[in-house]
Write a structure and sequence with these properties.
Structural class of chain B: mainly alpha
Distance between the termini of chain A: 46 Å
Helix content of chain B: over 70%
Transmembrane segments (chain A): 7-26, 32-53, 65-86, 92-110
Mean pLDDT of chain A: 90
Distance between the termini of chain B: 49 Å
InterPro entries (chain A): LrgA/CidA (IPR005538)
Order of helices and strands of chain B: HHHHHHHHHHHH
Number of strands of chain A: 0
Helix content of chain A: 55-70%
Main location (chain A): membrane
Strand content of chain B: under 5%
Low-confidence stretches of chain A: none
Subcellular location (chain A): Cell membrane
Order of helices and strands of chain A: HHHHH
Number of domains of chain A: 2
Oligomer: heterodimer
Protein name (chain A): Holin-like protein
């Protein structure tokens, strides 16, 4: 149907942006703590599940964004330079604490899930 | 200089840094050659070298930042593709994520408390394992410093992406569903991006864990903080 990726992908990203705006609107309207982007994700998931939106309408743009997800984090990550001073001297410990706590969460949350999933798969 | 030109240059530079690091990663695949890390490092070095402020960079950077919202919305698609298995494994995923939320809050809080950091810093580190906008609003409501929280969120995200192969190896985390829950609970969207690169099922599980974690942490963080501090 559509052949030119250079046209179709931006259009589909614009559609995703509209869904995001709807999510933000809902968040502001009800003063929710869940971010607009996550509400948008739930909206799109619901639309797809109820077959209100066929997959082909968004597929290329969505796949493109998911594949290049890390790209969109770059500006936020660069922001670390503004707070580098916090981690001078004793502040270094905060990085160690952050990493240790992250590793702990990953290992425990993952292992508990893995154990429960394997039990289910065997049953 | 014309702000539109600055914006165009910064966007172009960011895209070039990303594409360049993507090529490097394809040729030389290491954890520390992950595109976000290399591209971020290149941009930071450039900014420092030419004395360009972060604010100036963000004249262009904010346009990319603005696409972060729709990029998160896009995660609905892989989630939808894996809906059957998600439904079947919802209880293990929820249990694992809840444990992750409790462990993340209490370990961050207790360790920084024992190390003698100010309550302001402690409040800022508590919500580090959830996605930035949620972490910021939790931090704001408990008395943390919002920009500092954003940095801790980055440490959990980028750090988790860097150390996850090691953590998974030594903790025996081999199952795709377990890995997804671990990544999403510990390292939010950055962990999810790393998971998605390996496997779309693991990435989708990570997406679910990230969302659940955001909800659970924002509900339990204020109470748990009060209890442990």
């Amino acid at each position: 149907m559509f052949k030119d990726k250079a046209i179709i992908i931006p259009i589909q990203i614009a559609m995703l942006y509209l869904i995001y705006l709807a999510g933000k609107g809902i968040q502001n309207l009800f003063d929710l703590f869940i971010p607009g982007s996550v509400i948008g994700l739930l909206i799109l998931f619901t639309l797809l599940s109820l077959k209100l939106v066929p997959e082909w309408i968004l597929q290329q743009g969505v796949s493109f964004m998911v594949r290049h997800l890390p790209f969109f984090f770059i500006p936020a990550t660069v922001g670390i330079i503004s707070y580098a001073y916090v981690f001078k001297g004793k502040g270094m410990l905060l990085i160690v604490i952050g990493l240790f706590s992250t590793a702990l969460v990953m290992a425990l949350a993952g292992r508990v899930t893995q154990w429960m999933v394997k039990r289910r798969e065997e049953a | 200089m014309n702000p539109a030109l600055v914006a165009l240059f910064m966007i172009g530079f960011t895209i070039a840094a990303y594409i360049g690091s993507l090529h490097l990663y394809r040729k030389y695949r290491r954890i520390y050659t992950t595109p976000v890390i290399v591209a971020t490092a290149v941009i930071i070095v450039f900014l420092l070298l030419f004395h360009v402020s972060y604010e100036t960079y963000m004249i262009g950077g904010k346009w990319i930042d603005r696409l972060l919202g729709p990029a998160v919305v896009a995660l609905a698609y892989p989630l939808y593709q894996h809906r059957e298995i998600l439904k079947k494994m919802l209880v293990p995923i929820m249990t694992g994520t809840t444990i992750g939320a409790v462990v993340g809050i209490s370990s961050g809080l207790l360790l920084s408390k024992w190390a003698g950091f100010s309550t302001e810093i402690i409040h800022s580190i508590v919500p580090k394992s959830v996605t930035t906008p949620v972490a910021m609003s939790i931090s704001e409501s408990t008395g943390g410093v919002m920009p500092l929280t954003a940095v801790f969120v980055m440490i959990a995200g980028i750090g988790g992406m860097l150390i996850h192969p090691l953590v998974m190896r030594y903790s025996g985390l081999t199952h795709r569903i377990g890995r997804g829950v671990g990544m999403g609970s510990a390292s939010h969207a950055i962990g999810t991006a790393a998971s998605m690169e390996r496997d779309t099922l693991e990435g989708s599980i990570s997406t679910v864990a990230m969302i659940l974690s955001a909800v659970i942490v924002s509900i339990i963080a204020p109470g748990l903080t009060l209890l442990l501090l």
